Amino acid sequence: MDNTIVVSIIAASASIVVAAITYWTTKSREREADWRKEKLIHYKEYMSALSGILGSNSSPESKKRYTFAFNSVALFASQQVIECLHQYQELTRLSQVPLEAHDKLLTNLVLAIRQDLKLNPKDNALTFKFHVIST
């Protein structure tokens, strides 16, 4: 076989492989971005519902909304988020919730959500603090 034909076949094969890899990589990134966007929507709903049940504005409707948001998170959240969510939920079931423990578990939950969304993997768990402001 002539060398030019062999070189042409190799070049054509290489370009097909490169195109396939590029296509697969691009589609993978698009799926990841879509998945992250969907997670963000649900996490926003959860945090909004959480804000609705804190303080004096808690109503049966806001508790229903929170329950739905809480249960929806389990469909897509990482195991770490679900574990933090359950720890937070167990604490908040108590009749008297210690504020320091509440804020610590809520901070852990927010950090886990941020890590799951890949927002800022350099968050420092030792200095990061979060608490919900209620009306």
Q: Brief overview, please?
A:
The chain has helices at 3-53, 60-73, 79-92, 99-116. By secondary structure, the protein is mostly helical.
Can you put this structure into words, describing what you see?
With 135 residues, this protein is an all-alpha fold. Helices cover 72% and strands 0% of the residues. Helix 1 (3-53) packs antiparallel against helix 2 (60-73) and helix 3 (79-92) runs antiparallel to helix 4 (99-116).
Helix-strand layout with pairing:
Elements: H1 3-53, H2 60-73, H3 79-92, H4 99-116
Helix pairs in contact: 1-2, 3-4
Q: Please trace the helix and strand order, writing H or E for each element.
A: HHHH
Percent of residues in helices comes to over 70%
* Proportion in β-strands: under 5%
- Total beta strands: 0
Major β-sheet profile: none
Shape: elongated
* SS field, number of helical segments: 4
Oligomer: single chain
Structural class: mainly alpha
Mean pLDDT, all residues:
88
Low-confidence runs of at least 5 consecutive residues: none
Evaluate the radius of gyration. Answer: 23 Å
Cα separation of the termini: 81 Å
Essential attributes:
135 residues, mainly alpha
